[in-house]
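Practice problem: predict the structure.
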Amino acid sequence: MQNISSDESHAVFEELIKNGTITEEWLREKADEMKREKNKKILKSHPYTIYESNGIWYTHLPDPGKPEKRRKVKRKSKDALEKAIIDFYVSHENCLTVANVFDLWNDDRLKYGYIAGSTHLRDKKFFKQYLMPTPMASRQIDSVSREEWTAWTQAQLDNGITAKQWSGLRGVIKGILHYAEDHHYIPYSAEDMLQRVRIHKNAFKKRKKSDSEEIYYSEDLQKLRDYCLKNWDAYTSCIWLISISGLRVGEATSLTPDDIDLTAMTINVHRTETRGDETGQTLATVRDGAKTDAGTREVSLPSSSRERLAQILWNCKNNNWQFLFCRMNGDRIKTRAIRRKLSIICSNLGIEYKPPHKLRKTVASILIESNAIDDRTITQQLGHTDISTTHDFYHRSRLKAKERSEILDGIAEIGASQKTS
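Answer:
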């Protein structure tokens, strides 16, 4: 079907009015109806709460010039406030920037509980890293064509980013364009644009880390555990527990006394630390539920650790702490503090610092190489959905080059191959 130009459409309307097929009054009614529907849509998509206090009605409106990128607005009645909201978006619908639309989309998801505060912060970080430093952020959303988005996105890929970075950036771009499409700021969809981006086989930067970067070798692990046992406090006991259990650091810092069963020697993992609260602020808070569905689990501990675990529990209960690992004033120790403490310990011991997650990878490698427990038990211990995750992303050889060489020497058909008969 051939498209009709705006001039042709106008001529058709004039002819229909002249013939009496439609009336000007009908057109006005239709225009009013469309306006009412548009106003409803604007108010429904407004990302900030409308509330009343002491007879005054309040809300916020986007304002990129403010630190929080919003400003408070108040009116004497709800109708007056809604009119101010509608007037704002109508006046700005042709000048909303890409940055404005990102904030509206990201804040809207948080407001309605579609995402957690940590996801809100993560996407903010991606936008700040990739879009904010470029002219694209300040472009009016309706002025950026599909072809320009494709070219800009292709350039990010061609500049070299990792698959993980691309996943985050792609999610942000999709969100911006979906929001813009839903509000009729653009005539194309995110899918239309993204399917035009060429992702070749070697598109993503790959950096294969060595085993020594990913895990603690046996000698260093023992030094670390010995140090923790000799310098026992809330910080070192947390690091020690991670080194024998494979807990995520955010899981360890969120434990309470009720999570420990000394009789069964198990830890009930069902909370974790998150970096964002329900308002999207950067705060280290504890939320119910583990990082993943499989993360909610029962972690077993060796019976030889019962005495030390009992000391941790006694210290916690003796000080009336809510959480297992706290500062002397009772405040929960955060993951950042554990990382800092581990860095100091490694420096004191003269060993290479690796973050707490590498202790988790070390435990995973020990469990796999032990051949003492089945795959199901390993995934249960670590909170993985299947063993392939453990093998592909966690398992590293714990043998140093010299140890591997000595093992090869002991294999007759390899070690003896240099000898003449």
